[in-house]
Structure formats: C-alpha cells, structure tokens
Amino acid sequence: MLVSNHNTTEQTDSAPSPASKPSWRFGDLSAAELMPQLQRHLLAQDIKANWQLVWLNNDGRPVIGLLPKVSWSVYPNNEQSSSNLPNIYKVIKSCRNTDLSRDTNVNSADNSYAGTTAYMSYPEWQEELIAYSNAQEVNHDTSYINSEESSKPSYHHGLIGFIGYDIAALELSPADRIELAMQPSASLGHYDIYLTPTAHADTGWELRNHLTNDDTYENIGHKTNDSLITTLTSYLDELDQKLSDKYLNQSQFKDTSNITPLVLSPRWSKLDYQQAFNRTQDYLQQGDCYQINLTQKWSGRLPYSNDVSQSTAALIDYLPALYRNTKAPFAGYVSVDGDDGDYLDRNSSFDADSNHFELLSCSPELFFTFTREKDTGKHSIRTKPIKGTMPRGMTNEQDSLYKQQLVNSEKDRAENVMIVDLLRNDLGKYARIGSVKVPQLFAIESFSNVHHMVSTITAELKADTHPLAVLFGSLPAGSITGTPKKRAVEIIAELESTPRGAYCGTMGYMNFDGSGQWNVLIRTLQANASSNNSLNKERHVNLWAGGGITVASDCDAEYQECLDKVGNLLSVLAQKT
Fold this sequence. Notes:
alpha+beta, twelve-stranded antiparallel beta sheet, eleven-stranded antiparallel beta sheet
C-alpha cells in the first residue's frame, strides 16, 4: 500500500511530503511507449474518472500527470455576438471526487465530478489561476526539493496543461475577431498525483502525491486520501504485471504495424501556398510587418469502430513511433474530455474514445524556463527562440554542408535577430531593469530531420511579477507570429483563413513556487470530434508547418522548409518509415 510520509493519525494543517513507493518497471517501456498502455488501462478501470492524462518530456526530465485535483478547460463562448464586449470564454472547472470505482456500470453520484461552468475573460481566468497558485504555495511544503533537483527544471507540484494560439492571438488583437477553433482553447490542471522516473535506478517510475487534509475544493480526510492512493496503486500494480508478464510479447508495444495508417493531406496546393506567400510579401513591402510567420495545414481522420472487439484509433497510439522518430526535447501529450453539453453529467453518455480532445506535440522549441532561487525567492526566465532551418543531409558530408549553410545564412540571421529583439521587448515589461541579456546568438541545434538556428535570452523578473502573468502576457510566442506581433497575428488570420487551435500556443507546467518550463507548440497534432452528429464519430486530425517570411524569402525554399519540418511526421503516421 502506498501511504503518505505524513503522520496520518495526526490532524494538522501542514502539507505532507510527497509519497512514493518502490518503482514500477512497466515492462521497461519508455514514457512515450507507456502512455497508450497507461491511458487505456486506467479508462478500463474507471471510465467515468476525469483522468486527463498528461505527459511532458521536459527536456529529459519527464512527468506523467494523473487525475487532476482541479482542472480548468476553456472553450469558445458561442453565445457571444457583440464585438463591443470583452471576449468572454466558457470555463469548465472540475474538482476531483476521490472515490474511484472498478464497477464502471454503477450509476452513482459518488463516481461523478463536482463541476461548475463560468463565463469569464482571459485576464479573469489568469487572475483566478494566480490566486489559486498563490494559495497552494502557502499551503504546501516544498522543503523536500533538494538543490540537485531544483538546479534543473523539473515538475514537483503545480499546474500542467496548454494554452492555445487562438485565444492568445484574439486577446492580443480583440478588435480583429480572430476565429477560435471549436475545441478547448486552453486547459490547465492541478496535478497533485503524478509519476516521475525513479531517482536512483536505471528504469522505473514512482508515484508521488501532495494530498492534503485541509482541502478547500474537496473537503476530504486522510481515510479518503489513503483509499484513493491505494486504489491508484492497485491499478498501476496490475498494469505493471500485465506489461511484465513473461508470456507477453513485448514487441507488440513497440511495433506500430497494428496501428491504422493515418494519411494527412495538405489543405493548400503549391499554388495556394504561392498565392498566400505573394500576399504576405505585399504586406511586408508595404511596411505592415518586418516578418510574418505563414503556416499551412495537413488534415486527416481517425476512424471510429462500432465493433466492441476492436479498439478505436486514438492520437495517443501514434505517440511511441512519433517520439522515437523525433526525440523531441519538449514533446508532450494531453487528453481533455469534450464539451458536449453533458460534460458535467458523466454518468449520462460519456464516450472515452470519441468524445475528447487530444494534443500531441513533438516540439523541439523551448518557450520559457522559469527558475526560482531557493534562498532569495527571485524568479529568472530563459527563452530560446528558433528561427532558421535547414534539412539534415543524407550523408555526413551533405549534413555538414547544410549545417554550414545555415551558419552562413544572412537571411536566417536577420530573421533570428528580429525575433530576439521582439522577445527582449516582451520580457522588458516584466524584467528587472538591466537584467535582460542575450548570452547566445545564432547557435545551431540539430534534430532528427532538421538543423535549427537558436538564440538564448535571459532576464530576472520584477519582485511583484508572477510567472503566470509573464506567460500569459507573452503569448503567442514571437517566433511563430512575426513582428510587430499584433499586426502579424491579424495578417495571419486573414491569409491562413482557418484557426490554428492549440498549434503555436504553449504546453508545459508551472510549479506553485513559480518555477516551470513551457514549449512552443510546433510539430504538433490535434484531434477532436469532426461533427456534433452522434452517428459520425470520426475525429479530425490536424498538423501544421510554416516559417517566418521576410522580403528576402524565396517561395520555393519556404514551401520546401514546411515539408522538411513535418515530412518525417507524415511518413510515421502513414507508416512509410
């Protein structure tokens, strides 16, 4: 049984240290290989629980979040029609019920979530998250974090999730009425129960928790907490046994041959791209912007199976192969239940396979790393914008040639420095005067399919600035808009003529002490319901690619750059590799 290190016989207001148990090996699967198995196993145990499973690779320090204590999912407000009013969003907040049931046929209120729906603006939601985070920091002990752990960005208790591009772009330019995708615009959860790699073993995962006995949202006691962790532990024990069974063919978990090929088709032809490129050039030459990030979309469908003996395809099933191909440092995945009108009545008609939103990112790009000095409490920030791309070569000689061409490219250097200046200005609003630095310009980082030009910017935050305010206020990232940012997002909305959704937003975590790490959602797939018609349960899958356009850009080269960025992902999905 997994129990807290806190003395459960003593009722106090202090928070427990994180509990942990000897590691589960889970068949020695990698995190990306484990995720599909873990999600389906947990759903099979309790289909009505809001698992909202999330994984962040976090540059080699991964975390898997389970069953958030509180989650906020933000949706477009379809009833809002007046452009003279502030943009108001539908915010569904769910609070965990700690009773997990193995009997998924039980229609019991005890097995549902307590949830509320509110209508609020983007700044109001931000303020609620900051207030919630400040309250949690006061109530939770973080003294267990040793200096070795805190010197590297790692999750140790806070919020995990994503904020999409659309909602941030609309906030930046509210008068432009930028279209929102019909899916979650953002979702964040308080993950007080999570899996992390074992600290002193080559393989394995351990369960950590920060369950408290003075829970404002749940009003639960130690007995209930212990029962919840005991049940979760039993679920994980069963999965570990299943994956470790000596009679089990482990290759089935690493082989993608049993996954349905997913073919994504471009929304634009080469001619369509050229027309959009030419219009982009018109804006650049007229002086509207110095740089505009133009992207294009590929789309396909995940089929739905009515045969209960067959598993319906989900985006998470493609995660193992995609991650093996990319090894993306800021890869991540999250699944969010759909807003279908019956959201708060989970005992009515919840469909675990078709009625949810999935976000799968193979991002190589860091947006922000927030760090906190343990002694002084000061917060610092680091960002690493990517601008400049060349493909990997077929031979070592060709690869070195392409890399050197990127090093020597005046065009890519010009693009990169524009975004560096934009981010310096963004951070200047929140940074202590004189603290914004650029320690590295034009470094080359190599990934499985491309070389990228990357620069680094650092700053120290003002004492009265919460890191969440910096995150919200700096979105969307300048590397995927252009500069000036406000005019760029307006032109993007016109030329692309379809919402980006979460793509080009951010995904990551913010610990309650203000440390955290967030990516830029590039190389990112989204899957959501294709129709409100219950007879059509296929789900749309979308993938984007693009690049920064300047007056010096060449249309053919920019179009090819899009293919270079997602060609390997398209091949993996279609099982051509």
